[in-house]
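B., you asked whether I could sanity-check this one before it goes into the benchmark set. Here's the sequence:
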Amino acid sequence: MPFRYLRAVMWTGTRPAAALVSVALTMFAACGQGAKSPQDAYARFADAVRARDGMKLFAAVDLDTQSAWLTVQRSQRECYDILLSVFPEGAERDRQLRRFETGARSESAASLFAQQLLPATWASLAATLEDQPEFRINDGEAEVGTRGLRLRRDKRGGWAYAGLADQAEQQRKRAWGDLDVLRRSAADLERAAVRAGK
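And here's what the prediction gave me:
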């Protein structure tokens, strides 16, 4: 069955990002409370980095990073659906489809996150690891070792690596921007089709 983008599934509120974050936090809450201590969080992070396992790393990062990637994946999936359902076939549509295909076909936010990790990212993360680091804990944050690695405690009390949160937030903003542009363009195309009597 071909894709059909339905306007009814669009977010109609003024705070779609908040709605997605709420869904994300609910999903991640069901997966457990995360690391109980900075030491546990560091062990999970270090294990993922040493194995270069993107799925494990996703489980070791903070909720802000996870929910941002959930937004990216869902936004790219909706962009892909809009393009297939509303936009005319041609080179420009094909180019745009290629941009969003990875996110649209990813099974989860975790798998999309894992696919986006570059060798340079892994090398940078590995450079922060130490065999027996000291932990300096202060007001919900922990500095680990001497190489700038920081952990953060979330609102549920779990600890996680937060060093990719800023990058994830930029990805989230870009994904929302792309989706907003495509929604507006799709609406313009549908209005033009109505005026043309199609």
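One thing to flag: Helices lie at 16-29, 38-51, 54-60, 63-86, 91-105, 109-116, 119-126, 165-195. Otherwise nothing jumped out at me.
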